[in-house]
Amino acid sequence: MQALLEEVRSGQVASYDVPQPELRPGGILVRTAFSAISAGTDRAHREQAEKSLLGKALARPDLVRQVFNCARIEGIKAAYQRAQSRLGMLSPLGYSCAGVVIATGQGVQEFQPGDRVACGGTGYATHCEVNFIPKNLAVRIPDSVPLDVASLTTIGAIALQGFRQSQAVLGETVAVIGAGLVGVLTIQLAKAAGCRVIAIDVDLERAERAKQMGADLALCSADTDIHLRVKEFASWRADVAIITAATPSTGPIELAASLVRDRGRIIVVGAVGLGVSRQVMYMKELSVTLSRSYGPGRYDPQYEEDGIDYPIGYVRWTEKRNMQAFLELLASGEINVAALVERRCPVEQGGTAYEALKGTGAYTILIEYTAASLERVLPRSNASLQVARALPAGDLKVGCIGAGAFARDVILPALRKTPGVALLSIATASGVGSESARRMFGFARAVSPSDLLQDVETGAAFVISRHDSHAQYVIASLSNHKPVFVEKPLAINREQLDEIRWAYEEEKKKGRAPFLMVGFNRRFAPFTEALQRFFAHRQEPMMVHIRVNAGYIPHDHWAQRSTEGGRIVGELCHFVDWARFIVSSPIVAVSANALPDGTRYNRDNVVATLSFSDGSIANLLYLANGDKSIPKEHLEVFCEGRVGCIRDFCTLELTRGGKTKRTRATRDKGHNREIQATVQAMRSGGQSPISFEELAEVSEASIAILESIATGESVALQLAHSTALASKPELQQSSAT
Q1: Handedness of CA 401, 403, 406, 409 (dihedral sign)
Q2: How many CB atoms lie within 10 A of CB 214?
Q3: Residue 342 CB partners (closer than 8 Å, separation 6+)
Q4: Which residues contact 83 (CB under 8 A, 6 or more apart)?
Q5: Which helix (H) or strand (E) is 676 found in, with range?
Q6: Where are the beta strands (DSSP E) in 56-95?
Q7: Is residue 113's pLDDT more than 70?
């Protein structure tokens, strides 16, 4: 399918051929008919995107700090590679579109294929022929509203939320500062509510055009008599000023403060400078309110991605209900946008539309998806599976699912430099990310996840996607008889783990030798292997102490979501595996507790105790309430008068007989050695570097930590495994065999 994408490094916008996005639970696939470019918002974005690297750095000092922190901890080369990785990405554009539903995901009841829908959301309602849209970011379009007009719905919801925040009522005077697309929509909304409206812009011609769209008075912000004219029109001053301009200048808010009456209201919708004289604000006792995008629910992943709605009795106007209300105003004729949707551009020439915005006063340009382009979407063609370049004979043809930051920074570079690997195909849930990775790492083709797993040419699958998708891709890989490497965690709950066990045993029952490896890289670190040799041939149980200063991350981070398994299953599993490797004895029981601090830390301060069959004990501290300046990982082992200590995989200390041997090196957590060992085993037809039984044991122990925290009781793994087997008689039979 065609997608309009921006190259992060250069800011160039062009149309690319990318795979169709994957249908996921809780959302719909929409065949786009029209998508809207908001001139003001996108013009500001383009100015930022087209800056030099120095300009970008000055505009985003937070990202520069991240690069310096990475260089300090992992070295200049690693920091440079990560920066280059991000600059080489392709980024989707757009956030407002309309089209027709072509498929619905699990858990979606309110939409059916064939429904006409308006869609919103950055990263979702993009300039692509097909978009995946979470159900709370889509609304049905009334029959009387054309698709081209409906493509402005999300932008209309922004204007509507700003107007709601103003609390303007019948008869009040509203000054709209900034007569761009959001501005003229705000003007029409205010007129529909019975307000008197003043349109103000730095460009008088644009302000006069806004008067044609419904404003009662048009003014240029540079006019010396602007205050007098407002007083004449409003008998005194404006009751409300709604700022829809986009500029770093503080001019708009200073103007608003001077134009509104005592105890007047200023609503900031656009991205403007917020500095204003306290004296002016104080003397008038003004109130300033920022309007957040389309309305309540925006930036809340539980609302937008998980589909959890707010009760209407408590939150009347969510972003979805604002979108519905705007469509109803379009259907009734109270809002007329016909003059705003006259300029069109086919998606294949979308780059020229962005160029045209620089020298035109257009409110918007609609990206149009013609009948010819839509025919490429459904039914899906296997044309995307044509190999773009020849691959070396005899190499392991690898297909990778996932191209996020960890994949780009760690796994994909490791695969690229591993001998005997041919990078065949790359897939992502969105489709867009796969094309970025194909260009960056030299994959032969970009495809969808399902096509990758069904492709007979794919010799091995590497799953590096979001945690909640790991189990389904592992099971699909096993079912398609493909060796599979999956990043941790293997599963995020016991149900997923049981399904993987069942699929693995089914393959064995058919006489096959399934290959499954999980990315527990720390056991492959040079310091880990040296520490294990130090304790070789021990005769006594071990005491293992692991402290992870993980640091705080906010509740809205994707790793905190229950649907992703959380940080304990998602990261602490690394250290469960490390302890299992060092002790080299099965884990038989797990007990855990957490600080009662769920409000801030989401119960991320955890102490877990692992009991091993040989009597060894491992104590794991996972902490979110510490200072991040302290090194993250501290691992100690005590046994037979010896002590081994690894400090953040930069320092190894081995102490025996009162003498300590200390080794320092560049941090190496074992990723490259892990990938090399996995590829070698896959190519030779050998067994996984970690046995399936051990992978399942570590995964179950990690899940058991959460169960122990919830119940306050110790969890015996053998008993838990027996319960899982009992729930699947066929798995129990194969396991006994």
Answers
A1: positive
A2: 18
A3: none
A4: 67
A5: helix 671-684
A6: 90-92
A7: yes
